[in-house]
Amino acid sequence: MVSKRYELTDEQWNKIKQYFEASKKNGRPYKNVRNTVNGIVWILRSGAPWRDLPARYGDWNAVYKCFSKWQEQGLFEKIFENLALDYDLQDVCLDSTIVKAHKDAGSKKKNQ
User: Which long-range contacts link 29-33 to residues 24+ away (Cβ below 8 Å)?
Assistant: First the structure.
């Protein structure tokens, strides 16, 4: 599956899908959990209001209700905590040349 802008890739989805499967214990089954999660990601990344959610993700109110329920269950915290344990810093490089500072931050004032 080719992901669209603001959507999870197959690799990203495979890392988190079990959390959403485990969260559904009773009631009606979800039509398409990945599509709902992609709708939530679209809202969070775009900053748009819920009512502006594109129709391809389903009814905005249904997606919002899933988001609210999962948030109350602490599902997102569980996901973030577990993903943080599996971090990979191999390609992370911090370089001080990218840090911006005030023009007087590194020098003494001449009048002292």
Answer: 30/66, 31/58, 32/58
Q: At what angle do helices 33-46 and 60-73 cross, to 10 degrees?
A: 90
Spatial contact of 8 and 38, defined as CB atoms under 8 Å apart: yes
- Beta-carbon contacts of 38 under 8 Å, excluding residues fewer than 6 positions away, are 6, 7, 8, 57
**pLDDT in single tens digits along all 112 residues of the chain:** 445 788 888 988 998 999 987 666 666 666 789 999 999 999 999 999 999 999 999 999 999 999 999 999 999 999 888 887 766 656 555 555 555 666 666 666 666 5
- Whether residue 66 contacts residue 40, with contact meaning beta carbons closer than 8 Å, is answered with yes
